[in-house]
Amino acid sequence: MYNYVPPRPLEVDLRNEWAYQLRTRAAEWLDDYVTTTGAERGTAEQQGYGALAEVVVRNLLGLSDIRPPDQSAGFDIELPSGVKVDVKCRGGAFPFQEQYEGRDGLPREAKHNLFARQVYDEDLDTDVYLMVHLRTPQNGQLPGTTRQRNWRLYVCGWVSKLRAVREGVYLPRGSLTERGGSWFVYRGQEVEFYNKNLNGLTAVRDLLQVDSQDVEEDSRRVGGFNLTSVDAARIVYDLVGRGLMSQDRIGPISELLAFGGRVGPILHPNQYAHFARWLHAQGLVTQPELDLIIQQLPAEPYAGI
Question: What pTM, to 2 d.p., does this model score?
Answer without folding.
Answer: 0.90
